[in-house]
Design goal:
Enolase-like_C_sf, TIM Barrel, Enolase-like, domain 1, 13 helices, metal ion binding, alpha/beta, seven-stranded parallel β-sheet, three-stranded antiparallel β-sheet, 2 domains, 18% strand, 35% helix, Enolase_C-like
């Protein structure tokens, strides 16, 4: 079997509200690049990649000459074609490779009539548990709905998600407001849901001293882990030495070199594996094996997925034995998806692993066209800008906090 074509289409799918975070915002929508890889046998596999509000179509077009004529079964050769360590010094192709790997695994599964999880060793679980993902939000349009900026609004939103989807683990995305204010919000969640686990993630916006102070203030709560409170392995190591909560990261351990450094001098207890950031499902499974050997926890990170990447997260989550924490997903923040039938469903806080051949999903081409046209109308957005603070520039550690009294 040979690859005969690769096609990339950029879509933008609306969110319920604008999601604000430590270094900017998702401006009321996600921008994702959808790829289709076609073979000489007529099998088409799908992949997906984000880009912080930007299209990656041109980057995929640039890789087309590497892919035409390649056998999609030759995944290791594909990895070195795209992610050769020397060539990658000029262009970081890891995330591009991830989307291509997704599509090739989808093709292989369809060819063999097997779900991707069977290509990866077989599933250990039929469903993957997820945490709610709580953001401070602003309406997509002036006077619109969906605002979350007070402890009361945050608790109300969390309660709604718990009723609708059954979440028992809740993650607060912070780094937007002053740490003292976000501490108040986090404590309000703990008081409202005393039997549920909590996570706090300010995207490394705090300096080390603030991270230690925040962590010590929440030690007595039902914490799952303390995610990226500050930047770098050295900073995380110091926080870990002073705070009795497991540390976690998706920012400072995102490849095997960093994983080795963390093992040699432990700074992070839980590694959040992202099927895009690590370069595909298979690298995540390799990393999970290393974590199993050294008794590090793992979870599944969310980078703003639509249904194609969510399927990769589910297949990965199905096969790794040491998935010790609920996965993250922005998915419930979306108003729609590009899959036939719309969004996948949460049941008791979990999503069922797709069982059909390949990724086990059906892409709705009418939805692709609809949201590609929306992207053509709206274009991209600046992920590292806050629409409510047009002159603001993110720095790390941050001391330019947003004002929670201003909507």
């Amino acid at each position: 079997m040979k690859i005969v074509d690769i096609r990339a289409t950029t879509v933008t799918v609306p969110l319920e509200a604008t999601l604000r975070h430590a270094v900017g915002a998702h401006w009321g929508r996600f921008v994702r690049t959808i790829i289709e890889i076609e073979t000489d046998e007529g099998i088409i596999g799908f992949g997906e990649m984000g880009g912080g509000g930007e299209s990656a179509e041109l980057a995929f077009t640039g890789l087309k000459r590497y892919l035409i004529g390649h056998d999609p079964f030759n995944l290791e050769e594909l990895r070195f074609k795209i992610c050769n360590p020397t060539a990658s010094l000029y262009n970081n192709r890891t995330q591009l490779h991830a989307a291509i790997e997704f599509a090739c695994l989808d093709i292989i599964g369809q060819k063999l009539g097997e779900p991707v999880y069977n290509l990866l060793g077989g599933k250990l679980r039929d469903e993957v548990p997820f945490a709610s993902y709580l953001f401070f939000r602003s309406p997509n349009k002036p006077g619109g709905s969906g605002e979350i900026r007070t402890p009361e609004q945050l608790v109300q939103h969390c309660a709604q998600l718990k009723r609708e989807h059954g979440f028992t683990v809740h993650k607060l995305k912070g780094g937007l407001y002053h740490p003292d204010y976000e501490l108040e919000c986090y404590q309000a969640l703990a008081a409202a849901f005393p039997n549920d686990k909590l996570r706090y993630d300010p995207n490394a916006a705090l300096n080390v001293e603030e991270a230690i102070r925040f962590g010590q203030a929440i030690e007595h709560l039902n914490n799952d882990y303390f995610e990226d409170p500050t930047w770098g392995l050295n900073g995380m190591r110091r926080v870990r030495s002073m705070v009795r909560i497991p540390t976690a990261t998706n920012m400072v351990v995102v490849n095997f070199e960093q994983l080795a450094a963390n093992i040699l001098d432990l700074a992070v207890d839980v590694i959040l594996l992202d099927t895009t950031f690590w370069g595909g499902i298979r690298p995540c499974i390799k990393a999970a094996g290393v974590c199993e050997t050294f008794q590090l926890g793992i979870a599944v990170h969310s980078s703003g997925e639509l249904g194609i990447q969510l399927a990769t997260m589910l297949h990965m989550g199905a096969v790794v034995p040491n998935l010790s924490h609920a996965a993250d997903a922005h998915y419930h923040q979306l108003t729609d998806d590009i899959l036939v039938g719309g969004k996948m469903k949460y049941v008791n806080g979990a999503i069922k692993v797709p069982e059909g051949p390949g990724l086990g999903i059906k892409v709705d081409r009418d939805k692709i066209r609809q949201y590609a046209e929306l992207y053509q109308e709206l274009g991209g957005y600046m992920y590292d800008k806050d629409p409510l603070r047009p002159e603001w520039v993110p720095i790390m550690p941050n001391d330019r906090w947003a004002d929670p009294t201003q909507s």
